[in-house]
Fold this sequence. Notes:
alpha+beta, phosphorelay sensor kinase activity, EC 2.7.13.3, kinase, Heat Shock Protein 90, five-stranded mixed sheet
Amino acid sequence: MRLQSKLALFSAVSKVIILLLLVVGLPLLVNKVALLNADERLLQKEEKMYKIIEEQGIESFITEETGDAYGSYNLFREEFISLEEISSGKVVNSIENSLRKVDNEIVNYRVLSSTFDLGGKRYLLEIGRSLATIENNSQTLQTYALYFLAAVVLLTVFTDLAFSKILLRPLTLIVKRLQRIEHPSTFTPKELNTNTTDFLYLNNTINAMMGQIQEAFQKEKEFIGNVSHELLTPVSILQSRLENLLSDPETPDAMLEKLVDNLRTLHRLKSIIQALLLISRIENEQYLRNETLDIPQLTKEVAEEIKERAEAREINLQVEMESEYTLYKANQSLLFTMLFNVVNNAIKYNKPGGTILIKGQSTPEGYELSINDTGVGIAQEQLPHIFNRFKRLHAPDGESHGLGLTIVNTIANFHGIEVAVQSTVGEGTTFNFQFPKGNLPDSMAFSTNWAQSRN
C-alpha cells in the first residue's frame, strides 16, 4: 500500500474512532449541558420574579382572592411558577428534579426552590421546567451535534488526503524519476523543489548513491576492456604457437595429440572469455538498439546459416512463419546470436533423424516465436537454473550447456523479450520468445500520441 494511502487510512480510522467515542459519550455530555442550560434559565427567571416583586409588590401575586399561595402553568404545562407563604423557620435554596401532580397527571420537573423574607413574612418561590422538554431539546442537540461531527470528520479526511498528497509530492517525483531510469548511466542528478528536509536528504542520498553506481559501472567497463586485452591477447598468442608446432614437420608424433588437446582447451577458454565479455557488455548497455528488424526474415536467415549443420546431423529443420512482425529499437547481431544459440543447442542435443520446428505467429500479447526440438530434453529440476551463468548444467550425454543460454536470456532481457522453456526428458524442448506488442519507433510513437491527443 502506498504511503499516501496509509496516511489517509490512518487519518480516517483515527477520526472514526474519535467519532465513535464522542457518539458514546455525547448523550451524557449533551444531557449535562441541557440541564445546565435549564438551570441557567431558571436562575434568570428567578431574578426576573424578584425584580417584579420588588417593583410591584407581593400583592400582585398573593391577594385575598388567591389566599396565601399563587401558581401559574403555561398552556402545555412545560413550565410553572408558584409562590406561597411558609413558616418562618423553613429555609430552602436548591435546584433539583421533582414530581408534581398537575390536573391528575404526574409530571417530572426541574424545580428551582428559593425562600425570601418580605414584610415580616417568609415566602417560597418555585420555578419549574418540564424534564420532558429538556430531554427533547437534548435529543435535538445530539442530532445536530452528530451531523456536525460527521461533517467535520469527512471534511478533515479529505483535507488530510489533499494535504498528504501535496506533502508527499516530492517523494512521488523522486519515485517517478527513478522508475524512468533504464540504466544507471542515464541517470542525471536533479535538485528537489521542496522545503521538507527529509525529502531533501533522501534526494541528495539517492543522487550520491547513483553517482557511486555510475562510477562503479564506469570502472567495470574499463575493467572489461582491460580483461578483453589482457586475457584474449595471451590466449591468442598461445593458440598461434600451438598451431605453429602442429604445422612443424619436426614435431614428434607423440606430442601432436597433446597439442590438439591443448588447442581444444584454449579454444574453450577463449569462447568462455568472449561469452562473459558479451554478457557483461550487454548488461552494461554497451550495445545500441537503433535498428529495425523483420523478425520472420531474421529467423529465416538464422535457419539458412545453420542448415548445413542440421543436415550433417540428419536433422529435419522446418521454419513456419504465419505472420509478419517488425521489431523497432533492436540490435540485429545480438538477436541473431540469441536465435542462433537456441537453434544450435537444438541441433547439438537432438537425436539423429530428429526434427526442429521454428514457428512464428501473432498473439494478443504481440508476437510469439517458438523453437521446438525432439532432443534429449532437460530435467525439470534443472529448468529453473538453465539461464544461471554460475550454475553448471549437464546434458544426459555429460556435455555442459555452457554460457549459451545465459547469453540468450541476457539478449532477450535487453530487448524486453519474455522467454519461457518447456522440456520433457527424452522427448524434447521448446523455447518460446514473446516479443512485445505495440513496439514502435520513437518518432511513430510521438505521432500516435499526438494524434490521440488531437482526437
